[in-house]
Amino acid sequence: MNFHTRKWVKPEDLNPNGTLFGGSLLRWIDEEAAIYAIVQLGNQRVVTKYISEINFVSASRQGEIIELGITATEFGRTSITLQCEVRNKITRKSILTVDKMVFVNLGEDGLPAPHGRTEIKYIQDQFPDSAVE
């Protein structure tokens, strides 16, 4: 699992119970997953098609730093399937898991289009050695 994004839980992110509001967290996850899909498929035209059961494992409180982990688990002809975990950056305690998120690659016409990808692309594979410092 690749953990790329970190968020600081601020007062505006809290629910009436004083813990991280699930809606805020889901917005962050959908955005991070879309960015991951865009990078993997090399196309800015991707849409969220499906999100499986969301399992809230533990709460997060104001001041905590959380990190979002995303990894590709399957490449379809026009889709990519991802898995997600959110955890506390310091304690590594799991906050949320999503087993399956499906994003669809779109063509210029807005319809599903084949992407030709079959495996995860890592940063070192995407840029020549001279471009990565």
Key phrases:
single chain; 133 residues; alpha+beta; Thiol Ester Dehydrase, Chain A; 6-stranded antiparallel beta sheet; 37% strand; globular
Any idea what the CATH architecture is?
Roll
| Sheet having the most strands | 6 strands, antiparallel
* Alpha-carbon distance between the two ends: 23 Å
CATH class, named Alpha Beta
How many distinct domains? 1
Rg from alpha-carbon coordinates: 16 Å
Protein name: Acyl-CoA thioesterase
Pfam family, one: 4HBT
GO molecular function, one term: long-chain fatty acyl-CoA hydrolase activity
Family: Belongs to the acyl coenzyme A hydrolase family.
Indicate the topology.
Elements: E1 2-8, H1 22-41, E2 46-51, E3 54-56, E4 65-75, E5 79-88, E6 94-105, H2 123-126
Antiparallel strand pairs: 1-4, 2-6, 3-6, 4-5, 5-6
Description:
Pfam families: 4HBT. Keywords: Hydrolase. The protein has 133 residues and is of the alpha+beta class. It has a single domain (2-131), classed as Hotdog Thioesterase (Thiol Ester Dehydrase, Chain A, Roll), CATH 3.10.129. Helices cover 18% and strands 37% of the residues. It contains two helices and six strands; from the N terminus they run βαβββββα. Strands 1, 2, 3, 4, 5 and 6 form a six-stranded antiparallel β-sheet that branches. A hairpin with a 5-residue loop joins β5 (79-88) and β6 (94-105). The longest helix is centred in the N-terminal third of the chain and has 20 residues, at 22-41. The chain starts with a strand and ends in a 7-residue tail after the last helix. The mean pLDDT is 93.
